[in-house]
Amino acid sequence: MSSITVSRKAYDTDLVIFDKDGTLLDFEKTWIGIIGELITALGAYTPLTPALKQRVQDALGVSVDDSRVDGNGLMAMGTFAECTALLTYCLYREGIRWDRAHDIVEEVGAAVFGPESRKRHVQAAQGALDLLSMLKSRNIPTAVATNDKRADALVDMELIGALGYIDLVIGADSVDNPKPAPDMIEKICSSMGKDPGRTILIGDTVMDALLGRNAGVMLTIGVSGIVPAEELARHMDVVVTSLRDIT
């Protein structure tokens, strides 16, 4: 059987592509802790004023104290390069020369976004491994399309025990244009010999919906969480509250 069922409707498919953060990974449990470490690490280079702490969180679209992520913000929708640029600006606002601010962000990012930090914080989303296992048992190929770096995405998938279920991982650094351009899906489908018109995309943000639409996939499934279900429903073909709703 090469089909999945969502909202009591079965869909025959040749490929399922997942977003990573907020879809296969629990966004808040993974990234709130990492961003907390990032803010602390910046304190080794410049005083952690209340203004700087707030500026960093506002730039990224997160609130560490409230464990909240803005589903329309930078962490949810942006690329690593975009995060680097805005964090550099945050330090520049503190009076640090731009080139030095950029170097600090690169140094801090290499540590805070690296494997050791990820080991402490990365957590699978509810139902992620069960769904991947089910798709594997039905011989439905799977892939990951993320605006994160490919190497980091591979680490994350290994940490949650998902790497053995996934056939291909593509990051923003794997293509010329990140989401919402269709490049990631086009590269995945070309590499795997699959038709986008027979492909299902599962994601948790409007960016994922636009990616699927621009690539001409058969179906987009939205997982509500950091973006409310009613907002996702305006962009996705189907919306679920958990990956467990997909059978």
TrEMBL record:
Keywords: Hydrolase
Keyword rRNA processing: no
This protein's record includes keyword Hydrolase: yes
Single biological process term from Gene Ontology: DNA repair
Molecular function per GO: inorganic diphosphate phosphatase activity; phosphoglycolate phosphatase activity
EC identifiers of the protein: 3.6.1.1
Principal EC category: hydrolase
Protein's name according to its UniProt entry: Pyrophosphatase PpaX
Organism annotation: anaerobic digester metagenome
Lineage of origin: unclassified sequences, metagenomes, ecological metagenomes
Gene name in the database record: ppaX
